[in-house]
Amino acid sequence: MLRWRVSKPTVLSLLLIQAVTVVLLYGWYSRPPSQNSLSEGKVHVLLLSSWRSGSSFLGQVFNQHPDVFYLMEPAWHVWMSVKQTGARSLRMAVRDMIRSVFQCDMSVMDAYIPQPCNVSKLFMWSHSRALCSPPACFLTARDEISNEQECKKNCDTQGLKLAEAACQSYSHVVLKEVRFFELESLFPLLRDPTLDLRIIHLVRDPRAVLRSREKSFKALVQDSAIVLEQANLPENEQPYQVLQEICRSHMRIYETAMIKPPDFLRGRYKMIRYEDLVRNTLAEIEAMYEFVGLDMTETLQEWIYRITHGRGKGKKSDAFKITSRNAEDVSLAWRTTLSFEKVQHIQDVCKDAMTLLGYKTVESEEEQKLLDVDLVKPNEQNQFSWLPSKSTTAKV
Ligand SMILES: *[C@@H]1O[C@H](CO)[C@@H](O)[C@H](O)[C@H]1NC(C)=O
Question: Transmembrane residues, as ranges (predicted)?
C-alpha cells in the first residue's frame, strides 16, 4: 500500500489555500458583488409599494415561487397595535420588524400579537404559499400553486416555530410592505452583513390609485390617518393629501436610489411601474426574478398567464383580493370612471412625481377619455430624461 507522508504545516497551508479559494470563488459568482458573505447565500427581497398599486399581485408573483418564503405586510401588526400616531414615529419599529422577519426570527411578533400566538394570527397568513407547504403544513407541494381557502382550513398551528423553520428552509425571503415612505431607515439593513437585501419599488399612476382607493375607502381609513400623522383635514381633502404624501414618498425613494446612491445601495434597487408590469407581464417578471436570482418555471408561467387573462369575478368586499380580471383593462379604468375634476386635483398634488415616473398629465376631459392616447411614457425614457426637482426637499 502506498503511503503519503505529509507534514502538518503542509496540510494546514493546503487547507488555508482551499478556504481562500472557496471564499474568492463565492465572491466572484455571487451577484451583485457582495459584501454580504454572512448571508450564507440567502437573498432578502423587500417589495416596497403603496396601497392599491398592484402590490398584492406583485407579491403573489414571488409568493408562488418554489424558492420563496413570502409574507405580506408584517408591519401591519406594528401599525395596528399603536393607534393615534403617525408613520414617522413608527418607522423604526417597522424597520426592526422587517429585519427580524428577514432573519426568520418571528419572536418579534410577541410585541404585537397576544400569546399564545397561532400562525393564523399573522396578517394574511393563508396567502403565503410557504405557510401551506412543508415543513409548515403538508397541504401543498413546494412547487405547486397554493390555494388560500384550503390553506386557511388546514394549516393553522400553534406557535410560530414551524413558520420559522419554513422561513429558514428557503433561499429567498420576500416581504411586501406599503409602510415605508423613505429609504434611509432601511440603510442599516442594507449595510447588515447577515442580509443580502434587494429592494423592488413598485409605483402606479396616482390617478388609477385614487380610483382604486375610492372603491376600498373603508378598509383604508385607519392607515390614512397614520399617513397623515392624524392631521385633522376636511373629509373631501383627505384622499388627495394621502396621495400627495404617497407621491412624495415615491419621489424620495426613487431619487435616493438613483441620484448618487450610497455604495451599499448600488445594484440593489429596482423600480417598476405597475403599467409596465401589466402590459409586458412575463418579461417584467423575468427581469425581476433575474434581479434577485430566481429562475422562471413552467408552472409559474402558466399560472401568471391564467391570473392576468382570467374572467372577472372579483368580490368587492375584499379589498386585498387579487382577482383574475384582465389586468390591462383594470389599469385603464380610471380614464373612463374618474371625473376630470378629480383627475385635475390629483395631477395638481402629484405633478412632480408623475413627471419623474413618466406619467403624462391630461389637459381636458376629451384627452382623458381618449384611450388611444397613451399616458405612460416608455420605460427607457424615464430612466434618463428628468431633472432633479425642487420640491423633493419637502419634508421627510
Ligand atoms: C391554534 O391552532 C390549533 C391547532 O390548529 C387549534 O386547535 C387552536 O384552536 C388554535 N387556537 C386559536 C386561538 O386560534
Answer: 12-29
